[in-house]
Amino acid sequence: MSIEWKGVMPAVTTKFTNDDTLDLNMFEVNIKAQLEAGVHGIVLGGTLGEASTLTNEEKSILTQKTVDIVKSKVPVLINIAEQTTKAAIEAAQKAEKDGARGLMMLPPMRYKADGRETVEYFKAVANNTSLPIMVYNNPVDYGIEVTLSMFDELLKCGNIEAVKESTRDISNVTRIKNNFGDRLKIMTGVDTLALESLLMGADGWIAGLVCAFPKETVAIYELQKAGRIKEALEIYRWFLPLLELDINAKLVQNIKLAEVATGIGTENVRAPRLPLIGDERSHVEQVIESGLKNRPALPDYKSLQLVH
């Protein structure tokens, strides 16, 4: 079982009702908007998906629901963010039963594992599932960096295939290419560095603001891939103030507000998160309002796929 690691894969938000249960109806509305825009995969249960607040049963329901909605058009991945190796293996095996086609995987949560422990953690999961794995490398937010020497060891596992590159160091894309060629696919994971990373050779983009602006996000990817860099850059420059809502501690609330503005979400979050208020809310609303007011006309970016 393998995945084509390319294109735009939204790290989707989890939709909640006013009663704090899964809002599967609005969830489906958003997933269908992503598919209509031409995304290349769906990633569930990441930071944006409020993974730390979801029960195992809810993760299972979301996986099965998404698999049902996409009907094999694109792969469905779920994030593994666990405190123990045992729990991570169980989560991977449950995801496989639920129909997921791949895993995004963080290093161990809470305990700051050293390099040896982190490698063994990833390998133990890889050796106990047939699903392809994308290692989420985000030392800025999670405190553990997966280094090139660690990837040397990890790539002995055939199903560790990709990295979500979120180190914030653009030159890391080139280092990975120089060291591993196409053996380790690169999905850029920082919205505000996305186009730069793609132009340096990243294969795809695990995106955040795509949750509210799917067409613009896919258009940037397709245009740069087709060599129409100037057009991609114009959209990206318009997009940047919105993309900056993703590199913020309140990214979930920010992006859910944007989803409300584009009609494909609600702002319900799960406590301890609370909806934005006051000046913080006003600022985010102004950024979104300005973005909508100046929203660019998009070329027929889907037809560009024919020339790849």
TrEMBL record:
Transmembrane segments: none annotated. SMART domains: DHDPS. GO terms for molecular function: N-acetylneuraminate lyase activity. It comes from Tenacibaculum holothuriorum. The active site is at 136 (proton donor/acceptor), 164 (schiff-base intermediate with substrate). The keyword Disulfide bond does not apply. One of its GO terms (cellular component) is cytosol. This is Dihydrodipicolinate synthase.
